[in-house]
């Protein structure tokens, strides 16, 4: 676990395309350190330097405005401004460099009152708990811990798991009364989650290891973001230790 | 004057660690701080690097492979006989002698604009103007040449379909070449999503087709399948013809330096730039030499010359029958299009680099707000290209393109020697030429002397373009001073 309880959230913004971060989201992230990634995606036939020369002043201006909005809501803000041909590569790189715990996939969000947090044993539970706590401890949102099991026999194990998470959340300062627990029995956990997310405004979920299915059909979090109307906060999984990246920026479990 | 160095204010940005240096670059050459995947400018703004080694090789090979295999074998064999293989080998050696110095300069200055940037920073704005304008127009000539090649292949396809006789009274080469030139320019202006991925797969497909064809052809030529090769003297047209042919076919090697024009976008530039440039020259050089040997093994050189630009289709037919001919026709269409497309894009980068330094009006580099593309620069490439397609002859187009590039290549070698001697503080290449100073000296000598073996008409056009560039420089931009460049002080 990182020494500081600070939660770092990467917020990518298409800075020159008038992308708006909903006020509710800004409010929600006010307890975190927001790494504001202002990017401008350019076609391959344009040199990034060329776009930079023409658009940098405008981009800086828009970025400054966003920063002041986040700061006046109480968040600590760091900024990055990137001109890129490939937004996914840029998001991944900045998330790693800036040691972000979570990445926001922004969807419009008129109000954020109810947050669903799908819990799987396998995925990065400690960081998810910290991020959910950062979102939930303001006290004005309801957290739903969500766990899908395949058969009735596993329900009690699921409840135990969610109890554990709820306790951890309480330790991190979340009021127990704002946390509810749902264990569902479902053959298709992803579909169950999308249905469960229906009456929620924000999903906080763990990033999964890239799988073949993920490469073919899109990562789970992207599919959730597509099929739910609200924003998704994707909690990054710890970095795989790479041989030439031995300084190890990832969290220890 | 603008030096591309006018960064905005630094916000509370957190500059990334990991060996990235911010703000200690000499203002003369704002190379930014080049890390593996990003360049961080003084203002804290980051430019993502997105082209890997594979992409770099695809640019190099994709630009080059169109000409040497799909246009030149007939023409070259007609001039030099089987010894045309030596001409291609000579061209490859010269290209390598230049590719190594270019790699060193590109790793020291991984910026858009490639050769123009190196030479203007090492030798001042006058040389820069000649080289930049020469590169722009050189690539215009090259694109026109590829489009003429494309038109020849399209006509060969029509002939294969039996439709050629219906339209034989039309100036087909000009019509098809101009038409497709307009289409390519429009595509690049209005945004082509995933053009790089497409280029990568086209190059892979091409290499696959060529590998099958050349391996089979080589084995067959060596007599493994009982073929009688056409007996012919190796040098029927004398030794000199090897050099004049080398001058003609050098257009087939105008591609490695295009990798340098996207040097600002290549990941791990210290490793990938040299590998992509040297690797692509070696790959296409081997392919060219084998192609000539296989072609002259199938037909006499007089016969090959009579087949013209699409001689390789007949060669494929003689080895692999109708399917072979079809495969090579498709490959020829793909290769010439990919070469033309890559050249148009590089050419617009050269214009951008010139306008960044105020050597041409800044409007040229404007980016279209709707499509995000440098539409004016692209139009200034596509327009002259289709004019040349309409009026040009293959050999002259090729030689003028080579002329303008060879002058640039020679100057690249001179610039390298100059920079090594003056050794400015910012000059810190991560790749250094082996065999310095022999390699750049030989590279410069070879580049300049190859020009001497061209047709008088091509030389005249080339000299005229260079002079026009000088006139432009003195009329428009003589007071441009590039910051910190000693030749301009």
From TrEMBL, chain A:
CDD domains: USP-like. It comes from the Archaea. Residues 113-236 form the UspA domain. Coiled coil: none annotated. This is Universal stress protein. It comes from Haloferax prahovense (strain DSM 18310 / JCM 13924 / TL6).
UniProtKB/TrEMBL annotation, chain B:
It is found in: Cell membrane. One of its GO terms (molecular function) is transmembrane transporter activity. One of its GO terms (cellular component) is plasma membrane. Residues 1-10 have a biased composition (Gly residues). It is a multi-pass membrane protein. Gene3D superfamilies: Amino acid/polyamine transporter I. Pfam families: AA_permease_2. Its main location: membrane. InterPro entries: AA/rel_permease1, APC_superfamily. Keywords: Cell membrane, Membrane, Transmembrane, Transmembrane helix. Residues 1-24 are annotated as: Disordered. The chain crosses the membrane at residues 51-72, 84-103, 115-137, 144-164, 170-190, 202-219, 239-263, 275-299, 319-340, 376-394, 400-419, 431-451, 457-476. This is Cationic amino acid transporter. It comes from Haloferax prahovense (strain DSM 18310 / JCM 13924 / TL6).
């Amino acid at each position: 676990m990182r020494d500081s309880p600070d939660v770092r959230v990467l917020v990518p913004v298409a800075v020159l395309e008038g992308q708006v971060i909903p006020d509710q989201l800004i409010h929600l992230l006010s307890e975190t350190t927001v790494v504001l990634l202002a990017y401008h995606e350019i076609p391959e036939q344009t040199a990034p330097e060329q776009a930079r020369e023409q658009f940098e002043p405008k981009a800086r201006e828009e970025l400054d405005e966003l920063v002041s909005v986040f700061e006046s809501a109480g968040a600590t803000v760091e900024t990055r401004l990137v001109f890129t041909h490939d937004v996914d590569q840029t998001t991944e790189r900045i998330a790693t460099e800036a040691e972000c715990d979570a990445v926001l996939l922004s969807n419009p969000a008129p109000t954020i009152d109810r947050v669903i947090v799908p819990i799987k044993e396998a995925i990065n539970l400690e960081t998810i708990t910290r991020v959910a706590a950062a979102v939930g401890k303001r006290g004005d949102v309801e957290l739903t811990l969500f766990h899908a099991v395949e058969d009735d026999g596993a329900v009690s194990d699921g409840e135990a798991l969610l109890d554990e998470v709820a306790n951890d959340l309480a330790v991190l300062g979340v009021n127990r009364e704002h946390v509810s627990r749902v264990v569902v029995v479902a053959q298709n956990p992803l579909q169950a989650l999308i249905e469960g997310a229906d009456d929620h405004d924000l999903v906080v979920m763990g990033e999964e290891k890239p799988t073949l299915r993920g490469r073919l059909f899109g990562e789970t979090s992207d599919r959730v973001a597509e099929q739910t109307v609200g924003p998704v906060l994707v909690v990054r999984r710890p970095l795989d230790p790479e041989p030439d990246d031995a300084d190890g920026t990832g969290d220890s479990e | 004057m603008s030096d591309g160095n006018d960064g905005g204010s630094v916000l509370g940005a957190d500059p990334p660690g990991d060996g990235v240096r911010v703000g200690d670059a000499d203002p003369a050459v704002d190379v930014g701080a080049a890390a593996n995947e990003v360049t961080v400018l003084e203002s804290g703004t980051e430019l993502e690097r997105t082209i890997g080694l594979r992409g770099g090789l695809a640019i190099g090979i994709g630009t080059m492979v169109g000409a040497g295999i799909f246009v030149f074998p007939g023409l070259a064999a007609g001039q030099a006989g089987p010894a045309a293989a030596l001409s291609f080998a000579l061209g490859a050696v010269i290209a390598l002698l230049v590719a190594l110095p270019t790699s060193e300069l590109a790793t020291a200055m991984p910026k858009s604009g490639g050769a123009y940037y190196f030479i203007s920073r090492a030798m001042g704005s006058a040389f820069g103007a000649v080289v930049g304008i020469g590169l722009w127009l050189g690539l215009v000539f090259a694109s026109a040449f590829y489009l003429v090649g494309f038109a020849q292949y399209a006509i060969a396809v029509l002939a294969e379909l039996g439709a050629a006789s219906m339209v034989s009274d039309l100036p087909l080469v000009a019509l098809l070449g101009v038409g497709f030139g307009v289409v390519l320019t429009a595509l690049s202006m209005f945004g082509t999503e995933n053009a790089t991925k497409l280029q990568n797969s086209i190059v892979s497909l091409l290499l696959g087709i060529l590998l099958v064809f050349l391996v089979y052809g080589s084995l067959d030529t060596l007599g493994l399948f009982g073929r009688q090769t056409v007996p012919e003297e190796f040098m029927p047209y004398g030794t000199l013809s090897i050099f004049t042919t080398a001058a003609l076919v050098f257009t087939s090697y105008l591609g490695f330096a295009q990798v340098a024009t996207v040097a600002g976008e290549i990941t791990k530039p210290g490793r990938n730039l040299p590998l992509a440039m040297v690797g692509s020259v070696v790959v296409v050089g081997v392919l060219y030499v084998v192609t000539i040997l296989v072609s002259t093994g199938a037909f006499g050189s007089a016969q090959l010359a009579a087949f013209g630009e699409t001689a390789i289709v007949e060669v494929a037919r003689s080895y692999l029958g109708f399917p072979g001919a079809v495969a090579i026709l498709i490959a020829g269409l793909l290769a010439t299009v990919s070469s033309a497309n890559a050249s148009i894009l590089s050419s617009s980068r050269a214009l951008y680099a010139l306008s960044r330094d105020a050597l041409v009006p800044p409007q040229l580099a404007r980016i279209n707000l709707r499509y995000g593309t440098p539409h004016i620069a692209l139009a200034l490439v596509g327009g002259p290209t289709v004019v040349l397609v309409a009026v040009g002859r293959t050999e002259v187009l090729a030689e003028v393109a080579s002329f303008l590039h060879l002058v640039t290549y020679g100057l690249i070698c001179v610039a390298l020697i100059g920079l090594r001697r003056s050794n400015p503080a910012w000059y810190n290449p991560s790749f250094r030429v082996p065999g310095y100073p022999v390699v750049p000296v030989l590279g410069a000598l070879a580049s300049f002397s190859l020009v001497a073996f061209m047709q008088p008409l091509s030389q005249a056009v080339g000299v005229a373009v260079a002079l026009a560039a000088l006139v432009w420089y003195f009329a428009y931009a003589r007071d441009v001073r590039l910051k910190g460049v000693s030749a301009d002080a």
